[in-house]
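Anyone opening a protein record will find just a pair of labelled lines. A complete record is shown below as an example.
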Amino acid sequence: MSIFSRLFKIGQAETHSVIDKFEDPIKMTEQGIRDLKEDLRSAMTSLAEVKGIAIKTKRDAENEKKRAADYERKAMLLLQKMQSGDLSSGDADRLATEALSRKEQHAKEAVRLSQEGEAHEKMAAQLQANVNKIKSAISTYENDLATLKARAKTAASTKKINQQLAMIDSSGTIALLEKMRKKVEEDESLAQAYGDIASADKTVDDEINSAIQKGEPSAASASLAELKMKMGIG
């Protein structure tokens, strides 16, 4: 299965997984990214090699063109020497023919190398496209992984809180509060009863003295009245 197929499966698994299954997609995605980065390194190496071959091939083609042009120039010089009488006609024709033959050989080699160089450039372009595709995939899945980790962390926190809430016995708490309320009411009733008992223990003499004291002025009030009379205050 190719790396892209594996990562597609990871995406499907992540989409349909429940919160408790977040850990597996995270590990699978991390492994997928590592595989992609390894593929990227291999692709970059191949790209560099092919580009190097393409550059060398084009340079060799240019050199072959120069050699072809040089042999053509030499053939022309030979014919010029024949015209000036510096070289015999037979030697000039023979050497010029040989120079033109080598010129053709180098020209053909230049064409072949140029075609080969174009093929290597096309291959380099394809490899570059693959490299760009892998880089884009790595960036995408790294972003997805960051999102997945954040979701996993949030899910774990939510799960923990929900578990804690689920462990709270609301019915038991209400029962304790109800029991406490009844206890307070019982204590209040008991306090009132003790108060009634204390009131019932008063003697008849206590009631008589209390009734008498209600109509009599206090000592402080009597002293105040006596002071006002001495000062002539009405």
Notes: The radius of gyration is 56 Å. The chain has six helices and no strands. The chain has two domains: 3-168, 206-234.
